[in-house]
Amino acid sequence: MNDETSEIAMVNAAAIAGRASFELERQLALPHPPGLYLVATPIGHLADMTLRAIATLARADVVYCEDTRHSRTLLAHYAIRAPLRPYHEHNAEEQRPRILNELADGKVVALISDAGTPLVSDPGFKLVREAAAHGHAVVSVPGPSASLTALTVSGLPTDAFFFAGFLPAKEGARRTRLAELAAVPGTLVFFEAPTRTAATLADLAHVLGDREAAVARELTKLHEEVRRGSLSTLARDTAEEALKGEVVIVVGPPAAGDVDDAAIEASLARALETLSIRDASRMVSETLKVPKARVYDLALELKRRDPR
Question: Were 154 and a residue from 57, 113, 160, 214 both cysteine, which residue would form a disulfide, CB within 3.0 to 4.6 Å?
């Protein structure tokens, strides 16, 4: 880069910084009506904090978070001095009435998670429902999301997807859950602990077949990594490796006819709760796009094993 180009770049950078500063000042000056604000926070890179999120947290009367020690680092980085209080799965029942009282008193209450968008694999659903039921404003301040970040870099179809969160830790329950998801006509997105990633990939390959997939690790952080390949290949490559950091697994949708008996039986079991064998077989056949005769035979076998 020559001196002239460098000078132009510095002028442009100063102009951009000035505009960003102006917009942040404008956001800080805007009125923040009372209500519950769901504020997305970075999943690793502190610079992913939006200007609106900074302003909202700065103007909040109180910020509820999963871990006050973790969130205090984020707020300190942006010189935000709002009081922090814990809100997590172990104290949610106790804290909800307190938060509802604060909302009734006209306070601006913010809810954040340790990383990403609140309520996605985090507590908060019941709080949002009760706040809305009591007539309080509920406002989403969007931003980073690990599930969407992994989906978009996976190289897999994004037109339809299903976020399934964390799978059960035990193999039997995990395989049962995967059988229920096998027929979902879209890309699947899972969160997983690094210590269980290899086992989960092996179960995914066993239940879903050898679909294309991606394993995204440490997204937006210094050691970000995205591995792409078949489920069996990814399972083999991670089996002997001690993974670290947050992991998101993305699995491509089923191919035409790529539905095993376990997935068909899982769909049939739900359908047979309210439908006859004939109607359940027809519905599952049409939904999964597999021959009706195959589905009907499996339905008869299910009924034989469980005649209730």
Answer: 214
Q: Could you tell me the CA-to-CA distances from 294 to 191, 207, 276, 297 in Å, in that order?
A: 33, 18, 16, 5
Q: Which residues neighbour 173 within 8 Å (Cβ) at sequence distance 6 or greater?
A: none
**What are the domain boundaries of the chain?**
22-144, 147-251, 261-305
Question: Class for domain 147-251, per CATH?
Answer: alpha beta
Give pTM, 2 decimals: 0.82
Give the pLDDT of the chain (308 residues) as one tens digit per residue.
Answer: 566 577 666 668 888 999 999 999 999 999 999 999 999 999 999 999 999 999 999 999 999 999 999 999 999 999 999 999 999 999 999 999 999 999 999 999 999 999 999 999 888 999 999 999 999 999 999 999 999 999 999 999 999 999 999 999 999 999 989 988 988 889 999 999 999 999 999 999 988 889 999 999 999 999 999 999 999 999 999 998 889 999 999 999 987 666 778 778 888 888 888 889 999 888 888 777 778 888 889 988 888 887 66
- Counting beta carbons within 10 angstroms of the beta carbon of residue 241, is it exposed (0 to 12), middle (13 to 18) or buried (19 or more)? exposed
* Cross-strand pairs, 162: 188
Rounded Cα–Cα distance for residues 73 and 122 (Å): 19
